[in-house]
């Protein structure tokens, strides 16, 4: 009796064995300002549910506790294991957890809250414990679609903070300015003078603060060669000024977050999507799910560009006059064109040229 050894079967056996013995643990984290609820899921069971203070010491203690528990289970089963943390994007409230996980070199995923909500289907009841479980469930169901979260470098992190602070200052200034019309209409002239006298030093302080923030932002940008290069390239595109350029650098992690111009345009809410079902065919429309701040900046940039002497202005006029397009539709086409052009220029590391065709514009 002869026995023929097949090397391919041996490799398949090793792969199958690796898959079988690799234990996967997923932790859902529901984050709030003062506390974080965790739910540790293994297979179809929840091994641990715990509420932890949102402080560095408490989070590090919890992470060590979880690692100890998982190592014990893996040792009993004589298996290797993976541990992944899934959390919603909650702004600065999640920073401490992200820093702690990075310090322990653990894999983490930061997902938009709306994406998790839409994935749960019809659900009843809501509290922090339930939300932590649902986040863990999302991590198990959509493991193949998620991308690990990586920390920004120090320069980009500081730039984001300064850009957020500038936005807050501009918003406060706008609120004070917009109230002037109401004051003129409904208040006496004497009260108007008093109000303006009180507001003037505040407005001056805000202007100075905004100028200082912008100066610090520029210093940060110039300190990083990669960011500064993209900053200059982005501003070469019609309709993209320094504020728009900084906003896109922050939102896209210096243009590394999105793989295509269409994905970036969709994130900004300027890419139209079709709506069809059976015989019904609706008009292509942009989605309301978007980064509204970037969309607003793009709108202002598009309005500025169509008023100038550049190919975007010619494109807009052709859409309105020859193609008989609605003005807002034509303006959105310009917004989309700005995103595509900027993305292509960045990827090609080339400043905008009116007669140049980019291969990354799709």
Beta content: 5-15%
Segments where pLDDT lies below 50 for 5+ residues?
A: none
> In one word, what is the shape?
globular
Q: Using only CA atoms, what is the Rg? A: 26 Å
Mean model confidence by pLDDT: 88
Order of helices and strands: HEEEHEHEHHHHHHHEEEEHHH
| Main beta sheet | 5 strands, mixed
Distance between the termini: 62 Å
| Total DSSP helices | 13
Helix content, binned percent: 55-70%
The assigned structural class equals alpha/beta
Strand order of the largest sheet: 3-2-1-4-5
Give the total of beta strands: 9
Describe the structure.
- With 362 residues, this protein is an alpha/beta fold.
- Helices cover 59% and strands 14% of the residues.
- The strands form three sheets. It has a five-stranded mixed β-sheet.
- The radius of gyration is 26 Å and the shape is globular.
Keywords:
single chain, 362 residues, alpha/beta, five-stranded mixed sheet, two-stranded antiparallel ribbon, 13 helices, 59% helix, globular
Topology:
Blueprint: H1 7-21, E1 22-31, E2 35-42, E3 45-53, H2 56-77, E4 80-88, H3 95-103, E5 107-111, H4 113-119, H5 128-141, H6 154-186, H7 189-223, H8 225-235, H9 242-251, H10 261-268, E6 272-273, E7 276-277, E8 280-281, E9 285-286, H11 292-306, H12 311-321, H13 327-348
Parallel strand pairs: 1-4, 4-5
Antiparallel strand pairs: 1-2, 2-3, 6-9, 7-8
């Amino acid at each position: 009796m002869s026995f023929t050894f097949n090397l391919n079967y041996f490799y398949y056996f090793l792969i199958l064995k690796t898959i079988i013995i690799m234990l996967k643990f997923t932790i859902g984290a529901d984050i709030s300002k003062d506390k974080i609820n965790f739910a540790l899921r293994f297979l179809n069971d929840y091994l641990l549910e715990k509420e932890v203070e949102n402080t560095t010491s408490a989070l590090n203690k919890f992470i060590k506790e979880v690692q100890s528990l998982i190592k014990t289970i893996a040792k009993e089963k004589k298996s290797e294991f993976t541990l992944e943390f899934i959390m919603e994007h909650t702004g600065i409230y999640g920073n401490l957890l992200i820093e702690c996980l990075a310090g322990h070199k653990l894999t983490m995923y930061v997902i938009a809250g709306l994406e998790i909500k839409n994935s749960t289907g019809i659900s009843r009841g809501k509290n922090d414990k339930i939300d932590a479980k649902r986040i863990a469930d999302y991590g198990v169901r959509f493991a193949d679609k998620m991308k690990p979260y990586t920390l920004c470098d120090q320069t980009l992190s500081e730039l984001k903070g300064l850009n957020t602070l500038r936005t807050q200052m501009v918003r406060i200034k706008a609120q004070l300015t917009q109230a002037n019309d109401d004051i003129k209409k409904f208040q006496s002239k004497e009260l108007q003078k008093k109000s303006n006298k009180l507001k003037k030093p505040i407005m001056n302080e805000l202007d100075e603060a905004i100028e200082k923030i912008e100066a610090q932002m520029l210093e940060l940008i110039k300190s990083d060669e990669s960011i500064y290069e993209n900053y200059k390239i982005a501003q070469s595109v019609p309709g993209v000024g320094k504020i728009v350029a900084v906003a896109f650098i922050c939102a896209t992690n210096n243009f590394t977050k999105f793989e295509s111009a269409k994905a970036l345009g969709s994130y900004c809410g300027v890419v139209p999507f079709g709506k069809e079902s059976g015989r019904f065919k609706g008009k292509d429309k942009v989605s309301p799910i978007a980064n509204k701040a970037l969309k607003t900046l793009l709108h202002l940039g598009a309005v500025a560009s169509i008023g100038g002497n550049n190919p975007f202005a010619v494109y807009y006029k052709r859409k309105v006059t020859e193609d008989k397009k609605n003005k807002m539709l034509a303006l959105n086409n310009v917004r989309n064109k700005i995103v595509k052009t900027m993305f292509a220029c960045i990827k090609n590391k080339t400043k905008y040229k009116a007669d140049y065709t980019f291969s990354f514009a799709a």
